[in-house]
């Protein structure tokens, strides 16, 4: 245990020559000796410094050594300082100073025996140094414990994050497999059916009037799979901040009309009609392919979760900004879900019952809108449909996702 601690010693005696003699006996390396010629002077020093030991002359004019010790006992700061009383041999020796908290009280008798003085003082100083070193080590231990506790908390946090990441990856794998299986199964069943027709020579199933519908069915399943894979690739790019936009002059109104036309069959299958209200032209500078994704994602959601009721898309030129709204009258979204649905793989419990999906569409949509310096918001109430607003500045600047934080 390191005991290179500085120890302050207080000596109190009304006779300066006694003080000098005592100091000569007790001083040494690592010790600072403070002298007081009265109890009052001693009290002032006691309040200013931390002492390892006080050596008090019992007989002093005014307040004597015992009275000073009583005062020290009554003060928190000085209560634990060990005391050696210096008293005339034989006299006062039966006075037992009672109740001093530390119990560290000793006596030296006049005339002073130098050996007795040094050995008693050494004992108290050593004790003081050991106590101080111990306190120091305990403080260090408490700090180390606190740090260790912090580290354990950090590790627990990291572990939870890792577990969450693993769970997300597993969920993702099973969702992707499930989503890809649906169009693949349909295609597989179609090919099996055709094989049966061929083996039975039933070639009228492949007659010219049936072929276009057959091809369209196949293409739809293939498009579904391509869209899923594209979405996953987009998300991977976004995670690496590698998605960029290439803005060029586009007519948003014409683009919207083409998207609505492209979703006609899907709308029919959902039992909904899409009504589009748009100016004749809405020119701006955007990444056409990415904005098409935004419109498609919002309309696909409106068809999926729109409960077979009409869907409406409105485009407006607000002067400097294009405003797009997509409204449906379907299942709606609870207030507590309205922020998280824009995060990857987040879906509402209600929507899971209605339609399959990966929960990527709105995540991708918001990223694209932000890359165009735009905003997307939703207004909705459960059971009362949803209204998505998108605002796009008419002029988007070329950008990569690194420059955008959503
Ligand atoms: N119009 C809407 N009405 C009700 N809920 C909606 C609507 N649009 C989105 N949601 C909710 O937000 C979730 C996230 O939508 P998002 O488009 O990101 O994913 P998804 O449609 O489930 O799957 P996909 O990745 O194929 O788009 C949906 O699963 C659904 O719970
Ligand atoms: Mg979607």
Automatic annotation (TrEMBL):
Residues 8-125 form the Response regulatory domain. InterPro entries: CheY-like_superfamily (IPR011006), HATPase_C_sf (IPR036890), HATPase_dom (IPR003594), His_kinase_dom (IPR005467), HisK_dim/P_dom (IPR003661), HisK_dim/P_sf (IPR036097), Sig_transdc_His_kin-like_C (IPR004358), Sig_transdc_resp-reg_receiver (IPR001789). It is an enzyme of class 2 (transferase). It catalyses: ATP + protein L-histidine = ADP + protein N-phospho-L-histidine. It is found in: Cell inner membrane. Residues 175-396 form the Histidine kinase domain. Keywords: Coiled coil, Kinase, Phosphoprotein, Transferase. PROSITE patterns: HIS_KIN, RESPONSE_REGULATORY. It comes from the Bacteria. One of its GO terms (cellular component) is plasma membrane. One of its GO terms (molecular function) is phosphorelay sensor kinase activity. Its EC number is 2.7.13.3. Residues 141-168 form a coiled coil. It is a multi-pass membrane protein. Its main location: membrane. The modification 4-aspartylphosphate is found at residue 57. This is histidine kinase. It comes from Variovorax paradoxus. The gene is pleC.
């Amino acid at each position: 245990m390191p005991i290179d601690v500085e120890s302050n010693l207080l000596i109190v005696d009304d006779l300066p020559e006694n003080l000098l003699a005592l100091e000569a006996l007790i001083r040494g390396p690592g010790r600072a000796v403070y002298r007081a010629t009265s109890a009052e002077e001693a009290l002032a020093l006691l309040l200013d410094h931390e002492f390892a030991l006080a050596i008090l002359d019992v007989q002093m004019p005014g307040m004597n050594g015992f009275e000073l010790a009583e005062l020290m006992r009554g003060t928190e700061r000085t209560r634990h300082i060990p005391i050696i009383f210096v008293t005339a041999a034989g006299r006062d020796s039966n006075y037992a100073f009672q109740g001093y908290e530390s119990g560290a009280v000793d006596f030296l008798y006049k005339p002073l025996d130098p050996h007795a003085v040094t050995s008693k003082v050494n004992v108290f100083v050593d004790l003081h140094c050991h106590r101080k070193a111990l306190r120091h080590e305990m403080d260090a231990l408490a700090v180390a414990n606190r740090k260790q506790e912090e580290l354990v908390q950090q590790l627990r946090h990291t572990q939870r994050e890792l577990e969450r990441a693993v769970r997300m990856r597993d969920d993702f794998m099973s969702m992707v497999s499930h989503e890809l299986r649906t169009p693949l199964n349909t295609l597989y069943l179609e090919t099996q059916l055709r094989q049966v027709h061929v083996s039975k020579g039933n070639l009228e199933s492949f007659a010219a009037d049936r072929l276009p519908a057959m091809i369209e069915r196949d293409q739809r399943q293939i498009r579904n799979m391509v869209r899923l894979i594209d979405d996953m690739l987009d998300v991977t790019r976004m995670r690496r901040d590698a998605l960029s936009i290439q803005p060029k002059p586009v007519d948003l109104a014409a683009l919207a009309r083409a998207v609505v036309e492209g979703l006609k069959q899907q709308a029919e299958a959902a039992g909904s009609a899409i009504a589009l209200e748009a100016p004749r032209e809405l020119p701006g500078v955007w990444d056409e392919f990415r904005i098409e994704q935004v419109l498609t994602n919002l309309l696909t959601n409106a068809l999926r979760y729109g409960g077979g009721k009409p869907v409406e898309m409105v485009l407006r030129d607000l002067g400097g900004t294009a405003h797009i709204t997509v409204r449906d009258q379907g299942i709606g979204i609870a207030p507590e879900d309205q922020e998280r649905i824009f995060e990857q793989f987040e879906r509402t419990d209600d929507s899971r019952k209605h339609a399959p999906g990966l929960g990527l569409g709105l995540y991708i949509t918001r990223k694209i809108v932000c890359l165009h310096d735009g905003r997307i918001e939703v207004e909705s109430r459960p059971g009362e449909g949803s209204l998505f607003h998108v605002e796009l500045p008419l002029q988007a600047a070329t950008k990569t996702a690194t420059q955008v934080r959503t």
